[in-house]
Amino acid sequence: QVRLVESGGGLVQPGGSLRLSCAGTRIIFSRYTMGWYRQAPGKQRELVAAITGGGSTNYADSVKGRFAVSRDNDNNTVHLQMNSLKPEDTAAYYCNARNSFYDYWGRGSQVTVSS
After folding, report:
1. Which of 9, 52, 54, 59 could bridge across to 109 with cysteines, CB 3.0–4.6 Å?
2. Alpha-carbon distance 70 to 50, whole Å?
3. How many CA atoms lie within 13 A of 65 on its CB side?
């Protein structure tokens, strides 16, 4: 059974940084586009950042220049470095692995940006 497990969330002050990680088991990461999504209370889940198997990236406009996604296919992990965090970044962050055949989700990691 494929598992994606997020880690690294928590409480941080505005302007601070966090690094989320997603570790996968029973999945070959290189065959998937890996994405980070977030969902704030009362809002729809939205794409934050994604990285293809070849390393191409795309970001939501709201996080460009502040967040960076990276992947380590050898270790089946993907990371999201989040800098200059804002209160509006507060949400549950989810890891996603997707290709033409499969779509897997982690259970999420809470990020709270507050003073």
Report:
1. 9
2. 9
3. 2
